[in-house]
Design goal:
Layout: H1 3-12, H2 22-41, H3 45-58, E1 62-63, E2 75-80, E3 84-89, E4 99-105, E5 110-121, E6 124-132, E7 145-152, E8 158-163, H4 183-186, E9 201-204, H5 216-229, E10 239-245, E11 250-252, E12 258-261, H6 264-278, E13 286-292, H7 309-320, H8 326-334, E14 337-340, E15 344-345, E16 367-370, H9 386-398, E17 403-405, H10 420-425, E18 430-434, E19 436-437, E20 445-448, H11 449-463
Parallel strand pairs: 1-2, 4-13, 4-14, 14-18, 15-19, 16-17
Antiparallel strand pairs: 2-3, 3-13, 5-6, 5-10, 6-9, 7-8, 7-10, 11-12, 12-20, 16-18
Helix pairs in contact: 2-11, 3-6, 6-11
Amino acid sequence: MNNSNENDVNRLLLQKKDGPGAKEIAEAGEYCRGYMDFLDSAKNEREAVSAAISMAEKNGFAPWKEGSEFGRGNKVYAGRFGKALLLAVRGRRPLAEGFSIIAAHIDSPRLDLKMKPLYEDKGLAFFDTHYYGGIKNYQWTGMPLALHGHIVRKDGKGIRVAIGEDPGDPVFFIADLLPHLAKRQMEKPGKELVEAESLDILAGLYPYQGGKEEGAVKLNILRLLHEKYGITEEDLISAELQAVPAFKARDLGLDRSMVGAYGHDDKVCSYPALTSLFSLNEPEFSACVVLADKEETGSWGIGGMRSEFFKGFIAGLAEAEGKGSSNAINMALANSFCLSADVNTAFNPLYSEVFDPHGEADIGGGVVLFRYWGRGGKENTNDANAEAVSALRKILDEGGIRWQTGEGGRVDAEESGTLSKFFAGFNIPTVDLGVPLLSMHSPFEAAAKTDVLQAHRAFAAFFNRRQ
């Protein structure tokens, strides 16, 4: 090939980014130690908010109070019922010129306990559950589960629950049907292998004070809960209790190239969003991280992006600048730029038939830029405008970020959504950028360590943009 042809190849074709070198691999391993600690301490949204606030305060952030000053370099945060969090760093430009926003979600698929969860059947006590988010039911049987959550008693006292994480704790599980008796079960479609109403968690079998009367096992479980937490059965009505995998995040692969864990979706983007924000002092544009709840169930609820908590926070900051008019707030939103930091699926060669062979992201290939997701004819998607995508490409390339694009599966094989459409609804140009995963929405997902590090670097480059 002559030099002219070689120049045309380099100039005209989309060039594949070089893989990670030894230095990046070492840095990724070090960075992911902190990420794995975060995963272990943040198995639900309340724990994620608590962990994020602890990190923020160590990095100079203070609670935001209405009417407070928001001057250059100020670092503030504001929570919403302990289930969503907003953090901001004041930049050099006026707020009316817009924010750099990174929005991720901190909820993950799991099993929620029902309002009247505890029952007894044939001498066994069970917790009745209602699954949360998109799961494959059969993946949640026959594995150790931990119980996490928050109970608020009638007197208003809040109680944190975490059973099954410490080495001395008991764990829970869902008993599946043994293969010897599962002939009919195994003939069912995968979605019906384990019915949703069969996802009930075994809680115990000892009766209260050695009694044998019906209900004694349930009563004994209530006794144990009362001794540990001071609650009654009625208190379970005002409780948010979730069953999640009991295992911790682990190095995955003989080469330790990946992190295997529950909850990568979407803490694998939430954590780099936080660390990149903490690296700022006084950026050009004010920077904001949004950690939202309820993305997995449509973003409804008090901490979901369909609520007004984000816009109210921006309005409060604008008022602190002395320009709290509706027009100034609308200008601040319209002049902002948002990254919807969410995961995308990595190509899995074991199931190649559901992927687009020309356009999928690779695990280990860097962060994934995707303009749209959704279902069918691009329903339920943002479909980012070309100008925003071009601006993001420039930021990533100038920052030396390894990035790729992803389709998320063949047309009509996919059905998903992210937070991007909600920020577009605030009149903010928004593009999706995140980490590719294998086995997404399963109890044990995989992410490449170098991709997690690239997410941190990409988000830092975005926050340090100058136009």
